[in-house]
Each structure stands twice: as structure tokens, then as C-alpha cells.
Write a structure and sequence with these properties.
- The complex is a heterodimer of chains A (about 400) and B (about 300).
- By secondary structure, chain A is an alpha/beta fold.
- Chain A contains 16 helices and 15 strands.
- Chain A has two domains: about 30-150 and about 285-365, Response regulator (Rossmann fold, 3-Layer(aba) Sandwich); about 155-280 and about 365-395, Rossmann fold (3-Layer(aba) Sandwich), CATH 3.40.50.
- A five-stranded parallel sheet of chain A has the order 2-1-3-4-5, with helices on both faces. A four-stranded parallel sheet of chain A has the order 7-6-8-9, with helices on both faces. In chain A, strands 10-14-15 form a three-stranded antiparallel sheet.
- Helix content of chain B is about 70%, strand content about 5%.
- Chain B has a two-stranded antiparallel ribbon. Chain B has a two-stranded antiparallel sheet with strand order 3-4.
- Chain B is globular.
- The chains are: A alpha/beta (about 400), B mainly alpha (about 300).
């Protein structure tokens, strides 16, 4: 296409004019912040994060801006496709071109580690709500990142410790053969041994691409261990639990789901899942506040109940906006590390996780809950799935700050 | 306890048995692929998605229409097969004169669209589908617990493979079909409607995938990615068996299921790769596949 000088000038004027129009009201009385939800929109974690994460983020923003009309908050979202390179590319583009100030969700450990580094480099704020690896507040910690909902250490301590206490002192692991599975197996094994139990064996299952776990399951059964630890996530866990039931393994061994979400239980059905022991830091039916949040969330998501990751996005965005207000929106936009420092300074409190705090190393502290999945006869309907077995208070639920090896911690 | 190669015998027998069960799925899926490739010369990358659609159809029949497993076993293949006929008429039939690559791209695109649509409506973690009441429970074989349903899968798959083989190799319809793949214009000159026959063949291949999908629904969670997990392995099975060879794909399907099962005992980390190692070896030694004819 060839442009004439006249049309070029005309379009340049038009573009300039629109930009000026758009910018004027914002400059006049409103500050603008931009939140990027980088989540799994098409893969195995779509149901526990995905569209629900975006809806929860929008809820937090709507509630905050209704009370603080001086601020405008925009949301952008993208699919990280569970690939660190894709996520890193999106994060750079968001920060460099689109002016995004806060990146959240990051429901994949590799993705979270990559984006956390970019946040540090560009001095923007990053909150990982969907990632599991405890390295985010350990060796890989930085001043621009907070790790919100849960981590491998919390899961290991809550589920692993409780199972051993309940008499499950010999373990066999089915482990997804990649970094996350290995880390989870390692952390849980440590707890099992420290609590006086022993690990009699483990089998590494190829990831991704394994759908039939029956061979591995009968190896587990042959080991005569009392507990079957599932160091995997998503559809792997679903298939394992389903097939463990089919082969009668759940009768002779106690199955411990080390990373199971509400959406997984929903997919499996209670007749398959009943008796499964698992840990989460949020459940919609815990108390009046979580129920209130959930009843605001459900209408936006076709009646679904929020997972702990989705609740985490609501919680962290609300807290971020409070911190930004405290320090001034312009300052929050200019300096990600200062915003994160402010988030660590002020008290956290919201409907989903209650009162909490953020540690020097970026670890968000709140209680962890141990749940058992109800039998079909105990459940009153869809999403009435868990009963609480125990609560670990926040100061015991996570790894002691000195043990993580985070460089931000002054010893 | 008796040991074989350092492995307790019960464990080994158990794995062999499970290998046969998985092999049944490989055989059914690769059979459909082999028929479609043999007759239409199309590398049907949508096969996994249609397998998934079979599982979803049986779930839908149960949850929207109250139709249970046994009717779904008949109806889901018919419904998905009819859908396959529409696909063939609308899109695939336009590509017969072109290079394989176009068919591959088209069917791959169809697979992505189907999976995307289902994922969009039903999410990615899947939906529960119960084992029918008649097949619940398990038999204690002494060396392992064999769930009744898995036994049924092997039986159903074997019967279906046998029926397909008989239809193609022993009936006059099969004879016409085979003749049409050798020389379509000549067969057409005898007054046989070759395009319609090809359309129905595609429909039948698709119906086989859907049948496998219904069988798989109670074992795996019914989820949009279930076909994508299988399809790559199944392609390897077809390549090893020899592209287009009916008997080859059946035998190779069961055989590779067993090889995979054994790998899971001796070196679990390699169990996802072993089939491709076999494929490489076969391609080096016999490029046309174990049962294929070089063209």
C-alpha cells in the first residue's frame, strides 16, 4: 500500500488527537494501575486458575475502586501455555509496551521462576499465587516477588506430617518425573523420616504423556507400604486416584494427594475421592467470610466455587491496591520493589485468608488446613466436598525463614 | 516367591496383563487409522480428538439424556461416525488429489479446533464417568487384582478388531473397498459408487475411534486432552505395524502395549519413550513397517 502525504498527515493527526483525548481525563483526576493475569487458559491448570483467576482479580479491583474512586485499574490477561519462554515473552511485552505494574497467578513453577526474574530486572511487582515451588521464597527469592497461596514445603508438612501421625509410617511415592515432582517427593520424604516414618520406594512416571498409571500402582501395592504419596498434579493426580480405586489399592493403602485442588475433586466425583487426605490454604466453606467471598464469585463463574489459587488472586490484588494507596499510586507505578516492601509492611486481611503477614523473604503467611474428602452420603451437594481434619497455624505452616536460603534475609 | 529376572513373578505377570489392556486401546485406535490411511490415503490427525469426542458423547448421553453405558457403546460411535461423514464430505474430500501433507494439516487443525471447543465448554480437568454397575468389582487372579472392567475392555476390543478384519478381508464389501484403493476408476466403471464408499469408510474409522473413546471413558477422566495423549503413540504403532496394514496394526497394538508394560517394571522413566525407540529400530531395519508392503 502506498500512502499519500496528505493521508499520512491526516491519520497522524487523528491518532494524536485520540491519544490526547484519552489521556486528558486520566491526567485530570485519576491514577491508573495495570494488573496482568498470566495464567493457564488452555492446559491442565485451566480449571484451578484460568478464567476463574481473571474473574477473582476483577472482583478485587471492582471492590477496591468502588471505595476509592480516584483510581482506575485495568486488567490484561494471557495464556502462559505452561511454557517459561512464552511467559517470559509476554511479561516483557506487558511491562515494556503495555505499562503493566503487577503480574499475578503464574500457575506453573517454571513460569513463576522466569517471570519473577523479569519483575526484578524491570522493577515491577510479581505475586505468584498458582506456583508450588518453595524456591520462590528460598534460593530464588527477590525483592520484587511475593509467593502467596501455598508451596511444596507447606503441602509436605501438612499432609505428610499428619499422615505419619495417624499411623501411616511407611510410604511409596508415585512421582511426576520433572522438577516439581522431585521437589515435592524430596520435601515430603524429609517430613516422613523426621516424624519417624520411612520411605520404602518410589517410581518416577514420565511427564507429560502418562495416562495409565495402573502398572505403577501395582508396583506400589507390591511394596506393602501403608501410604501411597502422589507427588504429581492436575490430570495425573486425577488418573492416579481413579485407577487406584479401580485396582482396589485404596482399600489396602491410604492415598495421600500431595497437591490436589477442589476442581480435581469435582472432576473425580466423591465416590472415587472419598477418604482422600489433602492440604489447602483456602476452602470456600471454611467460615462466614470465605462463604461470603464464594457467593460473590460463583455468579461470575457459572456457579463454580473458587479454588485456593483463584482466591489467592483476589486476596493479593486487594492487598496490592491497599499498599499502593498507602504509598501513593504514582510511587507504586514507578517502583515495584518499593510497592512490594509496602505490601510486606502493612497488615494483610481479606475474606479468603483472613489476617496474615508477608515475611521478609516474600512468603505470605496464613494457616494451612488439612482436609479429608467427604463420602457421597455426607455431602449436601455440588462443591460440598471437604471436612477439616486439622489446622496448622501460619507461623508453623511454612518453612522457617532462616532455612530457605533467601538472600534478602539478614542473618 | 518365584523370581523372573530379579522381578517377583506376580508383578511381572501383572504388568503383562496391563500391557494387554493398554494394547487393546492402541489396537482399536490404530486400526481406525490404518483403515483410513489405507483407503483414503489421509493421515488422520483428528483421530485422537474423535476418540475424545466419543468419550464426551457417552458422558453427554448419560448426563443430558439419561442414556447409560451400554447404549452409549452403540450410539456414541454412530453419532461421532455421522459427524465424521460430515467432516469428510465438507473438508477432507477436497484434498484427495493433493499431497499427504495437506490432509495432515487439515486434520490436525480439525483436532485443535475440536479440543479447543470442548475445553472451552467443559474445562480441562475432565468429567467423571462411572464404571457400569455390571462390570464393577475385580477378580483376584492370584498374582494381581484384575478389575472386571479392564477385562471387558480387552474382550470388546478383540471382538471389534476381529469383526473389522473379517469385514475387510472376507466380505464382498471389503473386497470392493480393497479394489477401490488399488484402482478407483476401474471399480467405478463397474457401477460402484466409490466416493460414497470412501465417505462411509472414513465414518467407520471414526466410529472405531469413538468406540474406543466410550471404552476409555470410565478408566480415564473424560477430558479434552485424552486423545492428544494417545494419538502420538498410536501413530507410532501404525508406523511400526506398516501404514495401512489392518492385521499389522492389531498385532502391533497389542505387542507394543506389552513392551510398554514390561518397560514400566524394568525402567519406568523410559516407558513413555520405549515405543519410539522401537519405531526407530523398525524404520531402520524395515522402512515399510513390520507388516507393510513397500509401494
Amino acid at each position: 500500500m502506498r500512502l499519500s502525504r496528505r493521508s499520512l498527515l491526516a491519520s497522524a493527526a487523528a491518532v494524536g488527537g485520540t491519544a490526547a483525548l484519552a489521556a486528558r481525563p486520566a491526567r485530570a483526576q485519576q491514577a491508573t494501575l495495570k494488573v496482568g493475569v498470566l495464567t493457564d487458559m488452555s492446559g491442565p491448570y485451566q480449571d484451578l486458575a484460568g478464567p476463574g483467576s481473571i474473574a477473582a482479580t476483577q472482583m478485587a479491583i471492582a471492590e477496591f475502586t468502588a471505595a476509592n474512586p480516584g483510581l482506575r485499574v485495568e486488567v490484561v490477561s494471557a495464556d502462559h501455555q505452561n511454557r517459561a519462554d512464552v511467559a517470559a515473552g509476554t511479561a516483557r511485552q506487558w511491562i515494556d509496551r503495555d505499562g503493566v505494574d503487577l503480574i499475578i497467578d503464574l500457575s506453573n513453577s517454571a513460569v513463576a521462576l522466569a517471570v519473577s526474574g523479569i519483575g526484578r530486572e524491570k522493577n515491577k511487582a510479581v505475586v505468584a499465587t498458582g506456583a508450588a515451588t518453595s524456591d520462590l521464597s528460598g534460593r530464588a527469592c527477590n525483592a520484587n516477588t511475593i509467593h502467596w497461596v501455598y508451596d511444596t514445603y507447606m503441602l509436605a508438612k501438612s499432609t505428610g506430617g499428619a499422615m505419619v501421625k495417624a499411623g501411616g509410617d511407611s510410604w511409596f511415592f508415585l512421582t511426576a518425573d520433572y522438577a516439581f515432582g522431585h521437589a515435592l517427593e524430596r520435601d515430603v520424604s524429609e517430613f516422613v523420616r523426621n516424624s519417624g516414618g520411612r520411605v520404602v520406594g518410589s517410581v518416577r512416571t514420565p511427564f507429560p504423556g502418562t495416562t495409565d498409571f495402573s502398572s505403577f500402582l501395582i508396583q506400589a501395592q507390591a511394596s506393602r507400604a501403608k501410604v501411597l504419596g502422589l507427588a504429581n498434579a492436575g490430570t495425573d493426580t486425577i488418573n492416579c486416584i481413579k485407577q487406584a480405586k479401580e485396582f482396589g489399592i485404596s482399600r489396602s493403602m491410604k492415598v495421600a494427594g500431595l497437591l490436589v485442588f477442589l476442581s480435581d475433586v469435582h472432576a473425580l466425583g466423591l465416590d472415587v475421592c472419598q477418604g482422600l487426605v489433602l492440604s489447602e490454604s483456602f476452602y470456600w466453606d471454611l467460615n462466614d467470610r470465605t462463604r461470603a467471598f464464594s457467593s460473590r464469585y460463583s455468579p461470575r463463574m457459572q456457579g463454580k466455587r473458587p479454588s485456593m489459587v483463584q482466591a489467592g488472586n483476589y486476596s493479593c490484588v486487594l492487598h496490592y491496591l491497599k499498599a499502593a494507596k498507602e504509598m501513593g499510586y504514582a510511587q507504586a507505578k514507578a517502583d515495584g520493589a518499593a510497592t512490594i516492601a509496602m505490601m510486606k509492611k502493612i497488615q494483610a486481611d481479606d475474606d479468603c485468608f483472613g489476617a496474615g503477614a508477608i515475611r521478609e523473604d516474600g512468603r505470605k503467611i496464613h494457616p494451612a488446613y488439612l482436609f479429608e474428602v467427604k463420602a457421597p452420603s455426607e455431602s449436601k451437594g455440588a462443591y460440598d466436598y471437604y471436612k477439616v481434619l486439622g489446622t496448622t497455624p501460619g507461623d508453623e505452616a511454612f518453612r522457617p525463614i532462616a532455612a530457605g536460603g533467601c538472600s534478602l534475609v539478614r542473618s | 516367591m518365584m523370581m523372573i529376572l530379579g522381578i517377583p513373578a506376580p508383578l511381572l505377570f501383572g504388568q503383562l496383563m496391563l500391557g494387554v489392556v493398554n494394547g487393546a486401546f492402541y489396537a482399536l485406535l490404530s486400526l481406525g487409522l490404518a483403515i483410513i490411511f489405507g483407503m483414503l490415503n489421509i493421515v488422520n490427525f483428528a483421530h485422537g480428538a474423535l476418540f475424545m469426542l466419543g468419550a464426551f458423547t457417552s458422558w453427554g448421553l448419560l448426563n443430558y439424556a439419561g442414556i447409560g453405558y451400554w447404549w452409549a457403546l452403540l450410539l456414541a460411535p454412530l453419532i461421532v461416525g455421522a459427524f465424521g461423514v460430515v467432516l469428510e464430505r465438507l473438508f477432507i474430500s477436497k484434498l484427495y488429489k493433493l499431497d499427504h501433507l495437506y490432509g495432515l494439516l487439515l486434520t490436525f487443525g480439525i483436532a485443535l479446533i475440536l479440543e479447543g471447543l470442548v475445553r472451552n465448554y467443559y474445562g480441562s480437568s475432565g468429567l467423571p464417568y462411572r464404571i457400569p454397575a455390571e462390570l464393577q468389582g475385580a477378580q483376584d487372579l492370584g498374582f494381581m487384582i484384575m478389575p472386571n472392567y479392564r477385562g471387558w475392555v480387552v474382550l470388546a476390543a478383540l471382538v471389534m478388531c476381529l469383526i473389522t478384519w473379517i469385514v475387510i478381508e472376507k466380505t464382498s464389501i471389503g473386497a470392493k473397498l480393497r479394489a477401490a484403493t488399488e484402482n478407483a476408476p476401474l471399480v467405478q466403471s463397474f457401477g460402484i459408487n466409490v466416493p460414497r464408499m470412501i465417505t462411509l469408510t472414513y465414518g467407520a474409522g471414526v466410529a472405531l475411534a469413538a468406540f474406543a473413546g466410550v471404552l476409555a471413558a470410565p478408566i480415564y477422566s473424560v477430558n479434552p486432552g485424552m486423545g492428544a495423549n494417545f494419538i502420538i503413540v498410536v501413530f507410532a504403532v501404525v508406523v511400526i505395524g506398516g501404514m495401512g496394514s489392518i492385521l499389522g496394526s492389531i498385532i502391533t497394538g497389542f505387542g507394543l502395549g506389552i513392551v510398554e508394560g514390561l518397560t514400566r517394571v524394568f525402567y519406568p522413566e523410559g516407558s513413555a519413550t520405549v515405543i519410539f525407540v522401537v519405531m526407530v529400530i523398525v524404520l531402520l531395519a524395515r522402512p515399510a513397517g513390520l507388516f507393510g508392503r513397500a509401494h
